[in-house]
Structures are given as C-alpha cells and as structure tokens.
Amino acid sequence: MGITKSQIFTEHQNDLAQFFKVLGHPARVAILQYISNQNASICNDLVEEIGLAQATISQHLKELKSIGLLHGEVEGKSMCYCINVERWTDLQNQLNTFFNNTKSNCC
Amino acid sequence: MGITKSQIFTEHQNDLAQFFKVLGHPARVAILQYISNQNASICNDLVEEIGLAQATISQHLKELKSIGLLHGEVEGKSMCYCINVERWTDLQNQLNTFFNNTKSNCC
DNA sequence: ATTTAACATCGTAATATTGCAATATTAAAA
DNA sequence: TTTTAATATTGCAATATTACGATGTTAAAT
C-alpha cells in the first residue's frame, strides 16, 4: 500500500522513526555536513556544492526544517541556513537513549 | 523520479543515510524494542505483538538483517531473532561521530 | 507419508518519495 | 518601476516503499 500504519505504534516510536527517516537520505546528510563545515550556508551554495536542482535542495531543506534541525534567516535576497544546535543535541540524546535501551544479548 | 542519485554522494554519506533509512519506520523501531525486551524473539510473537501481517513483519526483519542489525537462528520450525550487539554498538558509535562532527553554531 | 506450524518469497495494489522544469514570490539593484 | 537574483512552490513523471494475500519451503508432529 505504501502507507505506514502509524496508529498501531506509540507516539514515541513514530517520532523516533520520523527523525531517522528525515536523516535517511544522502542529500540531507550532505546538507548537514556542508552547513556544519561552513558554519552556515545559503541555499545557492548547496545547489552548486551538492549538484541537485535548486527545487530539489529546497525540498530537502524543508524536510530538515520540519523536524526543527535547521532554521533559516532571511539575509537580503538569500536565506542563511544553519543547524539548530539545541535541537541537534536533543536529538542526539534521544537516539542514544534508544540505542542504550535497546541493547541486548541473545541466542 | 523516486530514485536517489547515490552517485553524487560519498560512500560514507550513502551508508549513513542507509542506516537512518532502515531505522526510519516505526515497525522496525518497535521490532528492535520488542526483541530487546524479550532478549530474543520468534517471528510469530512479533506478528501478534505488533499487529501487522506475517509477510509484512518478515519483510521488515529482512531490512534490519540487511544492515547487520539482526541475526536469526533456526530453532526447529521457528526462527529466533536477536540483535547483533557488536553491530548495534558500532552503529551507535558511527551515528555519534556524525552528530559530534556536525554540530555548529551560526547566524 | 501426511499434516501442521512457522517463516520466506512472490505478485500486486496503494501510497510515498525523489527529482526537476516551470512558475511564483520576495527583496535588493539599477 | 523594471530588472535581477535567490529561494519557494506547484505539478508532474519515474521509482520506491508499505502492506497483504497467496503460495513456497522446511522441519517437527502425527
């Protein structure tokens, strides 16, 4: 069907999966890394750096914004995008909690 | 197009994104959590616990196996699935490295 | 040997995602 | 005011994902 049955999972499971999902595309990984190296970035730099069409980069930026990982500031005609460090750290902690709670031995 | 342009990204970016992607479905999060709580699990338990069809659970298990996170052992007619702790820890370290390297202040 | 139980795989329908061209929108520059 | 530059949005085509019924496969139980 292509539709995820979110109703049968907990809110936490859905949230966690949503975070992972947004990070689950190489363009979005690359965007985060590039912004981090530059300490900030305008969209046009990303288009040239990454090599996807402007519309496509814009879409990926939107998804990263949707989970609060990026925020953009208008700078004249440009947008300055940067990582929301507080959210970034929060997310890292959440993922580590998941990893630590899910470790187990077996078989 | 629906097709990711993997060629334009580094192997590391693609690998990282692939890990995130596999974890980016609530059913797979739920499977990992359940297996962890039980310390191991047979597929049929998961079908009852999670409430997806057997074929669907089997498919999700396959994806978790594809990144080495789970391994299954034949136990008579059943399969005993469990988390590959070594791989699990390795993955956690990789993700933390990514998070630590990608932190940045801005704007 | 048959049956049964537990999984895996296949085929398929429905929906989601990716990517881009075309077209807004917005603000500075001319 | 018109132009230009930078980004967002829309509309689509191609491919991927999710889910499940039906059908294999395998090993224990009868």
TrEMBL record, chains A, B:
<keyword id="KW-0805">Transcription regulation</keyword>
<dbReference type="InterPro" id="IPR001845">
    <property type="entry name" value="HTH_ArsR_DNA-bd_dom"/>
</dbReference>
<keyword id="KW-0238">DNA-binding</keyword>
<dbReference type="Pfam" id="PF01022">
    <property type="entry name" value="HTH_5"/>
</dbReference>
<dbReference type="GO" id="GO:0003700">
    <property type="term" value="F:DNA-binding transcription factor activity"/>
</dbReference>
<keyword id="KW-0804">Transcription</keyword>
<dbReference type="InterPro" id="IPR011991">
    <property type="entry name" value="ArsR-like_HTH"/>
</dbReference>
<feature type="domain" description="HTH arsR-type">
    <location>
        <begin position="8"/>
        <end position="103"/>
    </location>
</feature>
<dbReference type="InterPro" id="IPR036388">
    <property type="entry name" value="WH-like_DNA-bd_sf"/>
</dbReference>
<dbReference type="InterPro" id="IPR051081">
    <property type="entry name" value="HTH_MetalResp_TranReg"/>
</dbReference>
<dbReference type="InterPro" id="IPR036390">
    <property type="entry name" value="WH_DNA-bd_sf"/>
</dbReference>
<dbReference type="GO" id="GO:0003677">
    <property type="term" value="F:DNA binding"/>
</dbReference>
<protein>
    <submittedName>
        <fullName>Metalloregulator ArsR/SmtB family transcription factor</fullName>
    </submittedName>
</protein>
